[in-house]
Design brief:
This protein is an alpha+beta fold. It has seven helices and twelve strands.
Length: 318
């Protein structure tokens, strides 16, 4: 990270490491020192995993790094952090981390698919002719826009309402809960959503989704420079078309922000993956998901959203 990187801003670091977080006491940043020198670091995002009649206290380890000449420092820190919870969850990670995790007992719990949707085709035009890759991206986005067809259709009974962070605690709205076809799910509370909305580097916007005047679900958009992200989304339905409408409404809302060039999302359930494709979102990569459980047997799969890690706000600033 070069000087000036959004992730190194003091306000962002205070929010990520030290600002009060629901159901967690004290700092969420941990270091290992050797003779007064920091040799490893890791930070946690607290999560609650609902699985098979139990609720597990899980931490997602982010900003995990160690000096190359301090063999085992990063692994030792990981193990110490793991003793603070029922398990450790990791989404993605560097090639080095991916090679290490299986040997440490981390089991695969699914693969999330990345999606993106170009919203303003000419937003990158000033740099579109610097190379073949950029020019090809522009052409691809034009074809994707033409191919969307009726994917953006939304019945008139559906409405979206923007809600300020201060109003969330007094609202009653459906939040992620375990359904029959899912093995495990990360729960979400209004307090945790409020915390995400206050991210300095990628401010969040909370939107309620109503059908026939009744609250049906919600989505959270985070503004990471010129990319908008569906950091979290939920609707109490197993119907693909209901989820398609939710994502279509999110794309319409994202386009109201003039600086946004594209919208990104992730999904690893069949319903949500189908819905994003039907809403016109092309696939653009995969994220391996791994979980380590301290005692007993963990779930085989777990639903994942950007809000379950740092993918909701991590960006390079451009």
């Amino acid at each position: 990270m070069p000087p000036g990187h959004p992730g190194l801003g003091m306000e962002q670091m205070c929010w990520k490491y030290w600002r009060e977080f629901p159901a967690w006491e004290g700092s969420r940043s941990f270091v290992m020192e050797r003779e007064g020198v920091v040799v490893a670091h890791g930070s946690v995002i607290p999560l609650t995993c609902s699985s098979a009649g139990q609720r597990l206290r899980i931490v997602n380890l982010i900003d995990w790094a160690a000096l190359r000449d301090c063999t085992g420092a990063g692994i030792t820190l990981l193990k110490r952090v793991g003793q603070m919870a029922d398990g450790v969850f990791v989404a993605g990670g560097s090639p080095t981390a991916q090679a290490i995790l299986p040997a440490l007992g981390f089991k695969p719990v699914g693969t999330a698919v990345r999606f993106f949707l170009p919203l303003r085709l000419l937003a990158r035009l000033p740099g579109a002719f610097r190379g073949r890759t950029a020019a090809g991206r522009l052409g691809r986005n034009l074809l994707l826009a033409a191919a969307r067809g009726h994917s953006g259709a939304v019945p008139p009974a559906w409405r979206v309402r923007h809600v300020l962070p201060a109003e969330l605690q007094s609202l009653q709205f459906p939040t992620p809960r375990l359904r029959q076809q899912e093995r495990a799910i990360f729960e979400r509370t209004a307090a945790e959503i409020t915390y995400l909305l206050n991210c300095p580097a990628a401010p969040g916007k909370f939107h309620l989704v109503e059908r026939d005047g009744v609250i049906a679900g919600y989505f959270v958009l985070t503004l990471a420079a010129r990319q908008c992200r569906i950091a979290d989304a939920w609707i109490d339905s197993d119907e693909v078309d209901d989820w398609r409408i939710l994502f279509t409404l999110a794309s319409r809302q994202a386009k109201t922000y003039p600086q946004v060039a594209e919208l990104a999302a992730v999904a690893n359930t069949n319903v949500e993956t189908q819905a994003l494709r039907q809403a016109g979102f092309p696939r653009c990569g995969r994220v391996p998901l791994r979980l380590w459980i301290r005692k007993g047997k963990g779930p085989e799969t777990v639903r994942y959203q950007m809000a379950d890690g740092d993918a909701a706000y991590l960006h390079e600033g451009d």
